[in-house]
Amino acid sequence: MKGEVILRVEGLWKYFGDVIALRNINLEVLKGELLVLLGPSGSGKSTLLRIIAGLEKPTKGKVYMDSEDITDLPPYKRDTSMVFQSLALFPNMTVYDNVAYGLKIRGVPKDEIDKRVDEILDLVKIRELKNRRVTKLSGGQRQRVAIARSLILNPSILLLDEPLGALDLKLRKELHVELKRLHEEVGNTWIFVTHDQEEALTLADRIGIMNNGRLEQVGDKWDLYEKPATRFVAEFIGETNLIDGKVVEVGDKYIVVDWMGEKIYAPVLENIDRGMNVSISIRPENISVSFRPKSVGEGVNIYEGEVVDELFKGSYVIYYVKIRNGQVIRATVLSKDADFDVGNKVYIYWRFDKGVTIID
Amino acid sequence: MSNKLLDRILYKYLIRRLGYYLGNLPGIIYILLLFYAPIAILFVISLTPPHKYIVIWEFTPINYFKVFTEATYYRILLNTFMIVSVATILLIIVAYPIAYYLARIAPNIGDRLLLFTIIPVEVNYLIRIYAWRVILGENGFLNSLLISMGLIHKPLTIFFYSWFAVVIVIIHEYLPYVVVPFYLNLRGIPNEIYEAAMDLGASKLQILRTITLPLSKPGLLSVVFIVFIPTLGEFAIPSLVGGQTGLMIGNLIDRYLSQFNLAIGATLSFFLLLFSIIISLIMIRLFGYEALYAR
């Protein structure tokens, strides 16, 4: 059951007038997973979610659920339920009435509704608030009501559009743990939209990174961190040094890139040729810093430079090292090994396979 | 120790309190002098025996008994209440769909279209009433139209100098004041609320019944305060188009005050005020204070 594709989005385009909100989105969502769509505001992630919910029609492309084409189905005929950014609780109703709404509309008998509401409120741990008006609840409580209102319909896919956006950091962190637990207990598929990188890394089984209407890369967090497919992904998840240059030599294992007069070794890719422009992403923690050059063999990038700045971060220190071609590279060193000062001459080095070659 | 405590109590309960009241004094005086003093004078005069031109300084509740026992008074009071109630209900029935259309169905152009409902207000109030005399009069537009269509043979009299005419003209005069509060009310309901209801499976009609109408209560409250209560004191419309069946309490007050029978005029005015206050309190009791300000 798990691991099957439950939802497939194919060649999706969305225009709002002249503005392109989505450009050729292709995405497969697996049964039971928690997929996070991560991207800056305006990247199209909410639009994608609204198209999956049926609240928006795509300009081009198809949405399939369990291999059935649902592109033209209205929201209430889809086995999805949406938790909105504003939560959209019905202010004229109590917690009970809000949560029971979907069942009441469907004409479910009263005693069955009562039973289901109690179950769901137990699940989100707000049973004692059952008869409270939703306008009298705190942010975190409202959050739970919104999720309960959607979950009560047993949707195959729960869609969440930045539902924690309005809450403070501490509460968000508490709710992350709570949401993770809920997802595991309910066991359905969740698609969660956020612009918060940390939220994505905490919650996600897999993350889809969106930028400027494109789905740049989908994968688990380690994939995204260690093998970013685009410059945007490399920069968006974690810290990185992005080095641009031209390929001058293609070897079996590595390529040699000219980086403003310096040679740099990077992993070889398929379809790479001499003369191509590439970017190399190298994470600061993969760069070593020392006073003396260490002989470290073939395929190692080693540069002499000067520490121009340092940033103490508690358990580690970020050094800004300016090398001979004038470029500044960031390298992190654990605080216990951080013996360098601004103005010191140092060597920075890393093996080519610590870097990632990106063709954009 | 006890001295210190005494000082604190003095400070907390006396000096601070005093400062609080003193600071608000100009406002309090202003309100008392300009709003409550006239009402008090009105009440005092209403307790004097009815007499033309002069106020006799004896006090008796006789005027209030008259309001309830003399048919002229209580029939007109009842008539006023009926006219205003029917007009308000019809106004809501006419205005709500307009507001709903502007706010929900054509939201992109709603603001501009709303202007068209407001523009007629720019035409002077009295001129608009006179315009209705031309339409509703015995040889007016409406009768001529019906005769030329062959539907009637001689002019109908129910259109003019009647209960009917007063209701029609009130509806016309006050329509913008009902559309606008409902429009603002409906515009204030976030779109995501409707989307959530739709996502949970509600049809358009179910959304209207379970979400939109219940959330329109603040608009309804505004309408009661902006239209129902002020219209109770309406007197230009019934004077110009009302005739005998369309008489309202405003006409009665006008008649007694222009005859300088201040006692009866004051009694009727005070009675109208009391009635308005009672209705306001009932509305607030039904909908809560918050509904006055919040959506």
Q: Which key terms come to mind for this protein?
A:
heterodimer, A: 360 residues, alpha+beta, Rossmann fold, OB fold (Dihydrolipoamide Acetyltransferase, E2P), 6-stranded mixed β-sheet, 5-stranded antiparallel β-sheet, 8 helices, 20 strands, 23% helix, 37% strand, elongated, B: 295 residues, mainly alpha, MetI-like fold, 14 helices, flat
How is the secondary structure organized here?
The complex is a heterodimer of chains A (360) and B (295).
Chain A lengths: L4 E12 L2 E12 L3 E5 L6 H9 L6 E6 L2 E2 L10 E4 L11 H11 L4 H14 L15 H13 L5 E5 L7 H18 L2 E6 L2 H7 L2 E6 L2 E6 L1 H6 L4 H6 L4 E10 L3 E6 L2 E6 L9 E6 L5 E3 L9 E13 L3 E8 L4 E7 L10 E7 L4 E3 L2
Parallel strand pairs in A: 3-8, 3-9, 6-7, 7-8
Antiparallel strand pairs in A: 1-2, 1-4, 4-5, 9-10, 11-12, 11-14, 12-13, 14-20, 15-19, 16-17, 16-19, 17-18
Chain B lengths: L1 H45 L15 H8 L1 H35 L4 H9 L6 H12 L4 H8 L14 H25 L3 H9 L4 H9 L4 H16 L3 H7 L6 H10 L3 H26 L2 H4 L2
Helix pairs in contact in B: 1-13, 2-3, 3-4, 3-7, 3-10, 5-11, 7-10, 7-11, 8-9, 10-13, 12-13
